[in-house]
Automatic annotation (TrEMBL):
One Pfam family per UniProt: Roc
Biological source species: Trogon melanurus (Black-tailed trogon)
Taxonomic path: Eukaryota, Metazoa, Chordata, Craniata, Vertebrata
InterPro entries: P-loop_NTPase
Gene that encodes it: Rabl3
UniProt keyword annotations, A-Z: GTP-binding, Nucleotide-binding
Protein name per Swiss-Prot or TrEMBL: Rab-like protein 3
Domain of life: Eukaryota
């Protein structure tokens, strides 16, 4: 909760800053237009739905079962954390397993003595992207320290990492490394949804 998911989704879909974000109750949906394999002969335009699931933490089974409805048939996961809040990044492990329906111990701690069981993601076929928000709120002298602390997240999730300020569109400017990473992620999401991978063969279903 409060990591900036709604601001991020608005920026991704509308290319505008969300002026007065409010708490998300349940889930809100927005749509992004994405050019798959842009600049190649295979380029094709797709609509991508981004489901902004509310981050309210509750131990009650009813809260989790309500969120589970939004995880059905997902084709990609963007894990969002607040760079100014260390617990926020640690909680990504629990949230990711919940979304992948592997959360066997909902109140358990998934990070033990600094070690993370990567086997939980060894066979994951769903594209993941890790996005850290509120970069602007970290003093310049401390940024390297914070980004070094969170860098392991991308490795643990076998995902690319983007760090940004959701109140400044320049972090996703066309041609920037962040924009390239984002485009690659959405390409993978589209392939997960519309293509079947069999070894090196990619079969398209119309």
């Amino acid at each position: 909760a409060g990591v900036g998911k709604s601001s991020l989704v608005h920026l991704l879909c509308q290319n505008q800053v969300l002026g007065n974000p409010s708490w998300t109750v349940g889930c809100s949906v927005d749509v992004r237009i994405h050019d798959y394999k842009e600049g190649t002969p295979e380029e094709k335009t797709y609509y991508i739905e981004l489901w902004d699931v509310g981050g309210s933490v509750g131990s009650a089974t009813s809260v989790k079962s309500t969120r589970a409805v939004f995880y059905n048939l997902l084709n990609g996961i963007i894990l969002v954390h607040d760079l100014t809040n260390k617990k926020s990044s640690q909680n990504l492990y629990r949230w990711s397993l919940e979304a992948l329906n592997r959360d066997v111990a909902p109140t358990g701690v998934l990070v033990t003595n600094g070690d993370y069981d990567r086997e939980q993601f060894a066979d994951n076929q769903i594209p993941l992207l890790v996005i850290g928000t509120k970069l602007d709120q970290i003093p310049e002298p401390k940024r390297n320290e914070v980004l070094t602390r969170t860098a392991f997240l991308a490795e643990d999730f076998n995902a690319e990492e983007i760090n940004l300020d959701c109140t400044n569109p320049r972090y996703l400017a066309a041609g920037s490394s962040n924009a390239v990473k984002l485009s690659r992620f959405f390409d993978k999401v589209i392939e997960k949804r519309y293509f079947l991978r069999d070894g090196n063969q990619v079969c398209h279903f119309s």
